[in-house]
Specification:
- This protein is α/β, with parallel strands linked by helices.
- The chain has one domain: Thiamin diphosphate (ThDP)-binding fold, Pyr/PP domains (Rossmann fold, 3-Layer(aba) Sandwich).
- The chain has 5 helices and 6 strands; from the N terminus they run ββαβαβαβααβ.
- The strands form 2 sheets. The chain has a 4-stranded parallel sheet, with helices on both faces.
- Helix 3 packs parallel to helix 5.
- The longest helix is centred in the middle third of the chain and has 15 residues.
- The chain is globular, with a radius of gyration of 18 Å.
- The termini are far apart.
Length: about 140
């Protein structure tokens, strides 16, 4: 239940919302979690990401390929990508986005995250994760 202008309603009373998805993401089509992530980044106005692929983040990179709005800068190391994202944010005034895999990939982001935090730089870091059934089994880069 919700109330708008004094009138009560339910979720089925809510109007359909049409969101402007890119060509590769159509509203109503079945979407994976990584497709939803990229669509959310698009809706948030993100036009550039900095990323280094790994086993646990490959689906995110596949979804990035289907986006006609976001350009990915392929970096050679996670620490380089997070500092590139930070530099982009400082120069452009936009949010810097870094995408890495789980385990050591996520760990390599920490210095850049700390630097951005100290300088109040808007930074979004996204990491992959192994399937739930493999958590706790030292399977940090399994697809």
């Amino acid at each position: 239940m919700y109330e708008v202008d004094g009138a009560a309603g339910t979720d089925k009373d809510m109007p359909e919302v049409s969101l402007p998805f890119a060509d590769g993401f159509e509203m109503g089509a079945e979407m994976s979690g990584s497709d939803l992530l990229i669509a959310a980044l698009e809706l948030g106005g993100i036009r550039r990401t900095f990323a280094y692929p790994g086993g646990a983040s490959l689906e995110i990179h596949q979804s990035l390929l289907r986006s006609s709005r976001i350009r990915n800068i392929l970096c050679r190391h996670e620490q380089g990508e997070v500092f590139a994202a930070e530099g982009f944010a400082k120069c452009s005034g936009q949010v810097g986005v870094a995408i890495a895999t789980s385990g050591p990939g996520a760990t390599n982001l920490i210095t850049g995250i700390a630097d951005a935090y100290c300088d109040s730089v808007p930074l979004l870091c996204i990491t992959g994760q192994v399937p739930q059934a493999l958590m706790g089994l030292n399977s940090f880069q399994v697809e």
